[in-house]
Specification:
This protein is of the alpha/beta class. It folds into three domains: 3-94, MurE/MurF, N-terminal domain (Udp-n-acetylmuramoylalanyl-d-glutamate--2,6- Diaminopimelate Ligase, Chain: A, domain 1); 98-320, UDP-N-acetylmuramoyl-L-alanine:D-glutamate ligase (3-Layer(aba) Sandwich), CATH 3.40.1190; 329-474, Protein-Tyrosine Phosphatase, Chain A (Alpha-Beta Complex), CATH 3.90.190.20. Helix content is 32%, strand content 20%. It is built from 15 helices and 21 strands. The chain has helices spanning 3-7, 53-58, 83-94, 113-126, 155-164, 176-180, 208-216, 235-240, 291-306, 311-320, 347-359, 380-390, 406-416, 426-436, 464-474; strands at residues 25-27, 37-40, 63-66, 77-79, 103-108, 131-134, 139-141, 144-146, 169-173, 189-194, 222-231, 251-255, 262-266, 273-277, 280-284, 329-332, 338-342, 365-369, 393-396, 421-422, 442-446. It has an eleven-stranded mixed beta sheet with strand order 8-7-6-9-5-10-11-12-13-14-15, with helices on both faces. Strand 14 and strand 15 (280-284) form a beta hairpin. The radius of gyration is 24 Å and the shape is globular. It starts with a helix and ends with a helix.
Length: 476
């Protein structure tokens, strides 16, 4: 592709005549750059790509794009206001705007993105459709599973994978960081879903209003006939509606009143759920527990209905859905206790998890959780309060240090829980709970889900699930 075709619209702010150069590819990594490619220097949080421009030139790049005012380079250099924004536009053009060639679903919100995306993928595939998935657990394209570092891949990887995808649908978990870092810039969505909003990432965002505003920005990228699907059970979902510059027929609401597009009737005593659509009532019996998962399933149902799938086929797929690794994943203790591993890392998510145990008749509830370095320390007190209110035994432990020292993290746990139980070693905290449980008790281990440990602990295990399995194996 010619250079001018890639760079004419990236907003340099200058009247530049681009050389007639054939571009063979795009790279942001000087270690893997190939001859004839364009190198985009990204100022990262730990490493600045501008420091590796010379290395990229030595490797044979034809053009460099960056933010800094640089001169005397041996290849053409294009200065732009934002390298990340430029990368998104360049990648989108280079790979032929792949989001315009398939049905694309973007899911945003604090909690529920992963479960909702897996549910929707399961529905589509049960109905004979093919579906790519980009999210926090992994990426799936053409049936192949790829590991992922971020909830939303960077713009270059996302556009490349979309271009390679032969699937009819693509589901993308869209994080707030993904939006601010232009990872989905230039893309167009057929459906945008808003699951909920809870306090999180305020180490990254100034406040909840800014966090909300970033999330709301996803809906500006809907295709002309695209539809917004919003959870109106959530306070922030209600705030989103006035901000959407869409016609009424393009907004679908999940809510608690009869005039909503989908309403949920749930009986706590029996655990049964009915969903009501246009005065038609359907029974829904999920294998996975919790009202939050009922809402996730309802969001997936509402979306799939807009795609033209039948209610019966959607319900059947949801009732067969086995769950997601590390998302309310249940393991059973031989003595009759229930162990739940979940990614919950906000106060609202804690509330959903622990209330589920109460509704299920748990004799006692144990809760093990921790925090990540300096990540949004302001949410910790509310998390501890919810845990102590809804559990019988609340154990604070380590998650990841993320730059703070062992002593600093340990002290912060004692400060938050001066009269409670603090066991820094996560595996020993789990062991303590499992040694105390009896028949009818529930144990929640939250915060990491299916993630592997970054720290070394006493028990030789790589994850919460592996720790539980190791401890239980010793009791056999």
């Amino acid at each position: 592709m010619k250079l001018y075709a890639l760079l004419d619209h990236i907003g340099t702010g200058k009247n530049i005549h681009f050389p007639d150069i054939d571009i063979q590819g795009i790279s942001i990594n000087s270690n893997t750059v190939q001859t004839g490619e364009i190198f985009v220097a990204i100022p990262g949080f730990k490493v600045d790509g501008h420091n590796f421009i010379d290395k990229a030139i030595e490797a044979g790049v034809s053009v460099v794009v960056g933010e800094k005012d640089l001169t005397n380079l041996t290849v053409p250099y294009i200065q732009v206001p934002s390298s990340r924004s430029a990368l998104a536009q360049i990648a989108c053009l280079y790979y032929g705007n792949p989001s315009q060639k398939k049905t694309v679903i973007g899911i945003t919100g604090t909690n529920g993105k992963t479960t909702t995306s897996f549910m929707l993928k399961a529905i589509l595939e049960a109905c004979g459709q093919t579906c790519s998935l980009f999210g926090s657990l992994n990426n799936v394209v053409n049936g192949q599973v790829f590991s992922t570092k971020n909830t939303t891949p960077d713009a270059l990887e996302l556009q490349r994978q979309l271009a390679l995808s032969e699937d009819e649908y693509a589901i993308i978990e869209v994080s707030s960081q993904g939006l601010t870092q232009y990872r989905v810039a230039g893309m167009q969505f057929d459906y945008c879903l808003f699951t909920n909003l809870d306090r999180d990432h305020l180490d990254y965002h100034q406040d909840m209003d800014e966090y909300f505003s970033v999330k709301a920005g996803l809906f500006d990228q809907l295709k002309p006939e695209g539809k917004a699907i919003v959870n109106h059970y959530n306070h922030w979902g209600k705030k989103l509606i006035p901000r959407l510059n869409l016609r009424d027929e393009h907004i679908l609401l999940l809510g608690d009143e009869d005039n909503y597009d989908l309403k949920v009737n749930r009986c706590i005593t029996t655990g049964s759920t009915q969903i009501v659509e246009a005065n038609q009532t359907y029974n829904l019996n999920l294998k996975i527990l919790g009202f939050h998962n009922v809402l996730n399933a309802s969001m997936a149902f509402l979306t799939a209905r807009q795609m033209g799938l039948s209610s019966s086929s959607i319900i059947k797929a949801l009732e067969m859905f086995p769950g997601v690794p590390g998302r309310f994943e249940i393991l059973k203790h031989p003595i009759g206790a229930i162990i739940v591993i979940d990614y919950a890392h906000t106060a609202e998510a804690f509330n959903h998890c622990l209330q589920t145990a109460k509704e299920a008749g748990a004799t006692r509830v144990f809760h093990i959780f921790g925090f990540r370095g300096n990540r949004d320390t302001g949410k910790r007190r509310e998390m501890v309060n919810v845990s102590q209110e809804l559990s019988d035994v609340s154990i604070l432990t380590f998650d990841d240090l993320d730059g703070v020292t062992y002593h600093e993290m340990e002290q912060s746990l004692y400060d938050l829980n001066p009269k409670g139980l603090v066991i820094p070693d996560r595996t020993l905290a789990i062991k303590e709970a499992l040694e105390q449980v009896d028949e009818g008790d529930w144990v929640f281990i939250t915060g990491k889900g299916a993630e592997t440990y970054e720290l070394e602990f006493q028990i030789p295990a790589i994850s919460d699930k592996a720790t539980v399995q190791y401890i239980l194996s010793l009791e056999e």
